[in-house]
Write a structure and sequence with these properties.
The chain has helices at residues 27-41, 66-73, 92-104, 126-140, 193-203, 221-234, 249-258, 264-283, 302-309, 325-335, 338-341, 363-370, 375-384, and strands at 12-16, 49-52, 56-60, 81-88, 110-117, 144-145, 152-158, 163-166, 170-171, 183-187, 207-214, 241-247, 288-289, 316-317, 387-391. It is of the alpha/beta class and 405 residues long. The strands form two sheets. Strands 1, 2, 3, 4, 5, 6, 7, 8 and 9 form a nine-stranded mixed β-sheet that branches. A six-stranded mixed β-sheet has the order 14-13-10-11-12-15. The radius of gyration is 26 Å and the shape is elongated.
């Protein structure tokens, strides 16, 4: 059933935790973080109030538009599903009357009743509740029962203190609440892959900051603005995203001056990893994340990854490493970054692409080439001149995650 077809006024949203149920002793911490994230995502609705139990969260709407609230909830990681609900007393006569009112104010022809009792002392068992509610609807409306594909699915959850009547289930974003898994630094290039990698990282409960390498005047301000727009598209999933912009021009020119052209991309990526590690240490991030996909380009063969990865001791997470391009594009469209990613502004990885980049570089050869110039001082200059920009969703959300790291 289309949720907007139902004209009944809901007073609650019932939120289910999903994967959090597997977290054992950490469960309370995960649920606490989820509540913080939900409140943050719904900050523009100050009328809302919240209540959480061991397996549910309840959002009291107090007159807020349930459809608008749901659009924000769909972006919060850690939610398995949620339902619009009406809270009533755990009394069969009141339950029957509210279900009848819902049926009368909903468009459709067929219905099904599904009752579940967590309060086992309720005088009727689940099947008896189903029959009692179905009977009053059949007697007072033209609705017909359809247990396989009903237009209206009435779900009734009976607890000791209250009963919740729901008319459907909306799929959540799954995963873990952002912030429970620490923080990582995403190498955000401006292409299709890296924003998807950032999204998938947040889905596993890891908060992100981003690092972007700019090479003005060879890369334009428009290219940097594009990256900030990508960060803005990711921001609703965790409240805000901090982007560290690295002035990479001098270091990049030194690479092309002193190193073999075929190794230029390999050396450049090694420098990027060195800089990313220093930024991680400064920002207390625990891993580097990028959008590398195995074999997609010369710098993403396994031999290249090994040679590039050798410069850092930090974990390097590659969420899209085993996805093909079509799968990555589909995800980018889902999260709303695709149209921005394909804008034709070149980044520092594409403006100096060699004609014949090496596909099987060695660590020994890379180190030999790097010994030709003082890259450490150039790296330090990059860090010293780094610009950090906080990016928020279109409607600014004030709370962020800086307090938990």
């Amino acid at each position: 059933m289309n949720i907007e077809q139902n004209k009944f006024v809901y007073d609650h949203i019932l939120v289910r935790f999903g994967e959090l149920s597997t977290k054992g002793k950490n469960r309370k911490d995960f649920i606490k973080r989820l509540l913080v994230n939900v409140r943050n995502a719904l900050r523009d609705f100050p009328e809302l109030t919240y209540e959480r139990t061991h397996d549910r969260m309840y959002i009291m709407l107090h007159g807020c538009d349930h459809v608008e609230v749901s659009k924000r909830l769909e972006k919060v990681f850690g939610i398995s599903s949620f339902s619009f609900a009406i809270k009533v007393a755990s009394n069969i006569e009141e339950i029957k009357q509210v279900c009848l009112d819902v049926a009368k104010q909903t468009e459709g022809k067929t219905f099904k009743v599904e009752a579940r009792r967590s309060f086992k002392q309720f005088p009727l068992i689940s099947d008896e509740i189903n029959r009692a509610v179905a009977t009053i609807i059949l007697q007072n409306t033209e609705w017909k029962v359809n247990v396989k594909e009903p237009d209206l699915r009435l779900q009734i959850e009976i607890h000791q203190d209250a009963t919740y009547i729901m008319t459907g289930k909306i799929k959540g974003n799954g995963g873990y609440p952002v912030g429970v898994g620490g923080k990582a630094l995403v190498m955000l290039s401006g292409g299709i892959d890296s924003p998807v990698a950032g999204y998938l990282t947040m889905k596993r409960g890891v908060a992100i900051e981003c690092i972007h390498y700019a090479s003005p005047p060879y890369t334009s301000q428009a290219a940097q603005d594009k990256v900030l727009d990508l960060a803005r598209a990711l921001a609703p999933y965790q409240g805000h995203v901090r982007v560290h912009v690295i002035p990479f021009t001098d270091l990049q020119l030194a690479i092309y001056k002193h190193c073999d052209e075929s190794y230029a991309i390999t050396i450049m990526r090694r420098m990027m990893y060195r800089i990313a590690q220093k930024v991680c240490e400064k920002q207390h991030a625990l891993a580097i994340v990028n959008g590398e996909s195995v074999g997609q380009v010369a710098s993403q063969t396994l031999e290249s990854m090994q040679t590039i990865n050798a410069v850092t001791a930090m974990p390097v997470i590659r969420p899209v490493a085993c996805l093909d391009k079509i799968e990555i594009i589909d995800l980018s469209k889902k999260i709303g970054t695709y149209e921005t990613s394909i804008q034709p502004f070149e980044d520092c990885c594409t403006i100096f692409t060699p004609k014949n980049p090496v596909t099987k570089p060695t660590i020994h050869k890379a180190e030999k080439l790097e010994s030709r110039f003082d890259f450490e001082s150039l790296i330090n200059a990059c860090i010293e001149n780094m610009e950090s920009i906080d990016v928020y969703p279109v409607k600014q959300i004030v709370e962020d995650y800086s307090d938990i790291f």
